[in-house]
Every structure is written in structure tokens, then in C-alpha cells.
Amino acid sequence: MTDGHLKAALSLARDGASRVGHDRIRLLQAVDEHGSIAAAARAVGLSYKAAWDAVGTLNNLFAQPVVEAGKGGKSGGGATVTPAGQALIDSFFRMEKALTQAFAQLESELGTAPLATTNLFRSITLQTSTRNAFRCTVTKVTEGAVNSVIDMKLTDDQSLTAVITERSASAMGIAEGSVVYALIKAPFVTLAPGELTTPISARNVLVGTVSARHDGAVNSEVTLDIGGGKTVTAIITIDSADRLDLKPGDTATAFFKAGHVIVALP
Hints:
Blueprint lengths: L10 E2 L7 E2 H13 L2 H8 L3 H14 L5 E3 L9 E3 L1 H28 L3 H11 L7 E12 L3 E7 L5 E7 H7 L6 E6 L5 E4 L10 E12 L3 E9 L2 E8 H7 L6 E6 L5 E3 L2
Antiparallel strand pairs: 1-2, 3-4, 5-6, 5-8, 6-7, 8-14, 9-13, 10-11, 10-13, 11-12
Helix pairs in contact: 1-2, 1-4, 2-3
């Protein structure tokens, strides 16, 4: 900050979860104004993929989807900001206004303490590279001598399981009914076409519909709509994606080990 003044640029992030800042709220507003993700992307200067990914991240972060998108891809389908999304927009700007007033007071209190300022901004701009971040409710905690198994409700039809150390579970105070965030890196997610017909060792199995596939030079990013406004993204090789013949609209199964799920508290 070259002018030495604190600016009220609100960025909301629970530990380990994806950031919600002015850019994503502005995208929500644009979806509301234009009625589609493609038109909103053009309005805010984003690629369609970046806007689509941002909407998917927001829907995963909240208990209820903030955007409901129709089918149609880049050229159509339409999208609607839900009442939950409208409440998010309104609440964000109310908090941002309050933050502006608070920062005016905070600046005078910080005075010439550069270390305090540095630590403050490291805290409020914390982000994560994890592609999949889900808000969940803990349904069961099974304690062991070394590890604890954390069962979580993701949607009415989908659940997740994490294995973390018993010490971590105890220190975090995780119990039945706790609201947590489950974080899974996209390369940890394995895909199979259709629904699995035989049992596998992976504890987490999510059945959905391929909603997007983006190919790069080596890897392919595949996103499944798993219902309840939630999506899960996997990064696999293009060879694997071609061999599985995954296309938007296809049924597919995403699965990953419980040990690959990181649990974070709100």
C-alpha cells in the first residue's frame, strides 16, 4: 500500500476455504443483471470458464446454492441468483460499509506499527489452492488411538468421510453437529464413467453428471454436478479423459480416499 492508508476491501474466508471477495460478489450481481453466466463474464471481464468456476466455488461454499444455472453452456441456458445469493450480496456490501468505518478507526490505532499491519493483512487475505472446498455438517466422529474418522453430510444425498489424527480432532473440538469445511485437491479425485457397480476401498464416492471438461496440453479438468448445487472437480490426464470418453451430460463417479480430505473449521 504505497499511500500508507488502509483500504476497506472486504475479503471473507474461513481457514482453509476459498475466498469470497468483491470480485465474486460483483460477478453475482452481473449474473443477476444479465441472467446468464456467459453475459456476466463478459460484463466483468472474465473468461466464461473463470466465471463458471467462480460460481461453482461459491455454490460449494454455502449451504444453499447462490446461483441456479440452466443447461446450455456458453451460448445459453440462463442463470438465476437465488434468494441465498441475494442475501449474500446484500450482506457483503453491508459488511463492507461497516468495515470502511472500522478501518478508519483501526488506522489511527495501528499508528506506526508496521508489523501489526503486515500480520493483519496476512490474516485477512489467506487463500487456498485447493480446488474442492465443501461446507459440511459432521454426522459422526469415531475416535481411535491414533486417528479419528469424521463422517460429514455434504448434501441430502451425498456424504464425505475424512481420517485425521485424533489429536487434531480433539484440538479442533470436532463433534457431531459441527459445521466444517472439507478440502480435497483436484488431482486426488479419481473418475470412472457411469455408476460404480462393485465396491472399492475409497471411502468417498460421489455420483454426478459431467457438467464441464476443459482440456490442456497434458491434463484435463473435469467437473461433475453432484446435486444440491454442489460440484466436484478432478484433474486427470487427457489420455485418461479420452479413454473414459467423458463428455458433458455423461454420468460419472468421483472417488477419493478419506486420508486425502482435509478438515477445516469455520
